[in-house]
Design brief:
Elements lengths: L3 H6 L5 H6 L38 E2 L1 H8 L4 E5 L3 H6 E2 L4 E2 L15 E5 L6 H6 L10 E5 L2 H8 L8 E2 L1 H5 L3 E2 L1 H7 L5 E5 L20 E2 L6 H16 L6 E5 L6 H7 L8 E4 L3 H23 L9
Parallel strand pairs: 1-6, 2-4, 2-5, 5-6, 8-12, 9-10, 9-11, 11-12
Antiparallel strand pairs: 3-7
Helix pairs in contact: 8-11
Length: 306
């Protein structure tokens, strides 16, 4: 599975290969459509919310999946790395790399629900329209991924099986991933930093895109109420809404998570490393884009370099 930053920075220079994630072509394959994709302009500017929306028809909620799987043949396909799958998984799910989805004969005549942690959708959104010729009847993506499954299916026969530490880590989102996924407008980014802790970003700290300030001061009920109101307001305009909590001090996440335990807020993730990690990720993204530009200059036009 390609990393979100590789997708964003254009490190894969053949869109045909990126679209299909297929094995190397045969010598007779027509490569005439392989051209260099545009490298993102203005490397210093992160792709923020608003430039693209997730496609509702690509997704199923857990409730929708349960209803449809009661009368239709479905397979749950986990696309994460093998190590992550062995540590934590949905009972009965299959692990298939995205590069092998087209060739997965085991899916023939069935519907396939694609599952990951729940915060990485860029590759899947790009891949799904190109899976029409695969053996499955249709492919859908689980909204909220394993993180949502863990919270809604806890205590049932379908609860996740595996390591508790892996379960606790599902809600953590690496800053590098968010730099890429932020192109989707379905994010609600919430800065929970308390004013007394220095709510304003430092001079060398990149502000989170379109972040809404909801300081967490220890009053769990008030905080949960304010966040729930924000979710209702934005959720009316943005289906598939996903919440990202960011704080200057990531050690506060456990208390924030506890405050939201009974709140009507779903699909919540926490920015790993806090606000400063986002600044570091932006810097690394910029370096990757510069490297990709240099790499692209030396590549032949109109052929795939895989």
């Amino acid at each position: 599975m390609l990393s979100p930053l590789a997708l964003l920075a254009g490190l894969v220079l053949c869109p045909a290969a990126l679209a299909s994630a297929a094995p190397d072509p045969s010598p007779t394959e027509d490569l005439s459509q392989c051209v260099e994709p545009p490298i993102p302009a203005a490397a210093s500017t992160p792709a923020g919310p608003g430039s693209r929306s997730r496609t509702p028809s690509f997704y199923l909620s857990i409730k929708q999946f349960k209803r449809r799987s009661a009368s239709e043949p479905w397979s749950i396909v986990d696309i994460r790395a093998e190590k992550a799958y062995k540590a934590l998984r949905i009972p009965g799910s299959l692990r298939i790399q995205t590069s092998f989805l087209k060739a997965a004969g085991i899916l023939k005549g069935k519907n396939a629900l694609l599952v990951n942690e729940g915060h990485n959708f860029l590759e899947l959104e790009n891949l799904l329209p190109r899976l029409a010729e695969a053996g499955a009847l249709q492919f859908k993506i689980l909204d909220g991924g394993l993180n949502r499954w863990a919270s809604e299916m806890e205590g049932t026969q379908s609860a996740l099986i595996g390591d508790k530490r892996a379960r606790d880590g599902l809600s953590r989102m690496p800053a590098m991933d968010f730099v890429a996924e932020a192109i989707f407008s379905n994010w609600l980014v919430v800065d929970t930093t308390a004013a007394k802790a220095g709510g304003a970003p430092a001079a060398d700290e990149k502000p989170l895109p379109d972040a809404k300030p909801v300081p967490f001061t220890g009053n769990a009920a008030a905080f949960a109420g304010r966040l729930a109101a924000l979710v209702r307001t934005k959720g009316e305009k943005q289906p598939l809404l996903t919440v990202l909590i960011a704080d200057q001090d990531p050690k506060r996440y456990d208390a924030i998570r506890a405050a939201l335990k009974n709140a009507p807020v779903r699909n919540v993730f926490y920015l790993e490393g806090g606000r400063s990690a986002y600044a570091a990720a932006i810097k690394q993204r910029d370096q990757m884009v510069v490297a990709a530009r240099e790499y692209a200059k030396n590549q032949p036009q109109n052929r795939c370099n895989r």
